[in-house]
């Protein structure tokens, strides 16, 4: 069972049977968040990928990489980040996924995390580094309430396991210039998939 350890400065996006989704800015000081961003931009094992959409192959509009927490090649900055997140969220995270949004053209469509790739009742914790980007969170069932949340550098967004059943989330493209951002997602995956 997930436990949210922090209580102060928490913005509750959803806090009922369909959630929780909570946001806390500033769990990482801005100078440290900038240092971690620079290190991950340089050290991350970044990959581009493509997928089939509308019967054609298209590039995924962001770079990504994944690490198992037990991987000896896990960058030290991710070990530090995991230790800091563990001060705020009580969950046995074993997988870290990163998305690199290079500019305003990079995005992720509204989606929910695949529950078969996560241990039941365990949360997803998203640490933001770099430029502020807007996340849209939308309830799947009527009323289709939508929240736009500005994810600042050093902030932590926590989504409960059951939130994936009831909400979609995404980072839309923008029509104005914005700097790069890295999203660091901490998950608890079944041992066979802890990549």
From TrEMBL:
One Pfam family from the record: 2OG-FeII_Oxy_2
Protein name per the record: Alpha-ketoglutarate-dependent dioxygenase AlkB
UniProt GO MF annotations: dioxygenase activity
Annotated keywords: Dioxygenase, Oxidoreductase
Classification via Gene3D superfamilies: Alpha-ketoglutarate-dependent dioxygenase AlkB-like (2.60.120.590)
Domain Fe2OG dioxygenase: residue ranges: 92-190
The keyword Cytoplasm is assigned to this record: no
Superkingdom of the source species: Bacteria
Xref: InterPro entries: AlkB-like, AlkB-like_sf, ALKBH3, Oxoglu/Fe-dep_dioxygenase_dom
